[in-house]
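Figure S4 source data
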Amino acid sequence: MVDLSLIEFGVYGFIAYGSLLMLMISTIKDTPTTASHSIPRFVFLMPGLICAALLAGADDTIILESQTVAETFQGIKPDGSIVNLTSNETHTSIINLQDSVWVLVHFMIFIVLLIHIIFQSLALLIKRD
């Protein structure tokens, strides 16, 4: 599983949830079922499908920022030679999601979008204008 940054999580979530919202609106509204109208629905739901899959495969850790601190120390040995010591530390701020149910929610969104895209592609191949 992959850790996501806050920006990635927001963008992927916006696209996936926007696609799900567009699908919910299309169930309420009467949409044409011709082959020429199934192409835009197919194309506009594909990014949501991909983003839902990325969110489903992500870990429950969201990375806010990483900061690397480098420190250099100079010292003198008893024999008079100079010693340089370098220390690098990385501090990462993270948010842990409280429940891992979000992976399941994003997987369900992926499955719903996948089924709809399969039906739209079948409508494209079977129906005539």
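Figure S5 source data
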Amino acid sequence: MKKYVEKQEETTNILSDWVGIILDDGTIGVVLRISKFAYHIICNTCANSHANTICGNKECDGLSVKDTINKWKAETSAVAIKNIYCFDSFKEMMQWFTDGIKE
């Protein structure tokens, strides 16, 4: 796992295809492709109901991982993204995501 660090003066930081996020309120999520043309952030905040939730609204859906994160950041009602993590594989990302579920 690598922590993605965004710096305004650098433009060489590259997001991978497998990205996890932590929001300022501690919510853990992953950016997942939900259709042929859309990505969305899915969160694991509902461990008590044994279900994941969609974070944000349809306006936060993007055409790519980067577009989804940018739309999230532009949404004024959304909880801010605290950390972004890039993973080497889908399996690694999903393991990190499921490890964050508190039962």
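The mean pLDDT is 79. Residues 2-6+16-99 form one domain.
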